Amino acid sequence: MPRPRTRRPERAEQYESAAYRELQARLATAVRRLREERGWTQEEAAHRCGMTTRLFQRVEGADVNLTFTSLARLCEGFEVDVALLFPSP
Q1: Sign, CA torsion 2/7/13/18
Q2: What is the pLDDT of residue 24?
Q3: Which of 11, 18, 70, 74 is deepest in the core (most CB within 10 A)?
Q4: Which residues lie closer than 8 Å to 30 by C-beta, 6 or more apart?
Q5: Residues near 84 by Cβ (< 8 Å), separated by ≥ 6?
Q6: Does residue 54 contact residue 26 with C-beta atoms inside 8 Å?
Q7: Burial of 47 by CB count in 10 Å (0-12 exposed, 13-18 middle, 19+ buried)?
Q8: 39 with 12: CB under 8 angstroms?
Q9: Nearest Cα to 30, choosing from 76, 75, 72?
Q10: Could you tell me the pLDDT band of residue 83, with boundaries at 50, 70 and 90?
């Protein structure tokens, strides 16, 4: 059983901020759109992006705080510029 995520108490408000939630939502929407445009399953997209299916699902579910390396893997897997992962609202 995975252990629960722990976050630093001093950063708790950041994870609930409107700006943080908006970025998560924009990324999730863009990744889902790119995957569906290509006709890929989540498993195939995760494989192409070099990540686990569970991590990819968390990206699409706007439930993850990604690192730059994970963002880079998404860009490489989808062969897109990072700007396409954060389109203007």
Answers
A1: negative
A2: 95
A3: 74
A4: 84, 85, 86, 87
A5: 30, 34, 78
A6: no
A7: middle
A8: no
A9: 75
A10: very high
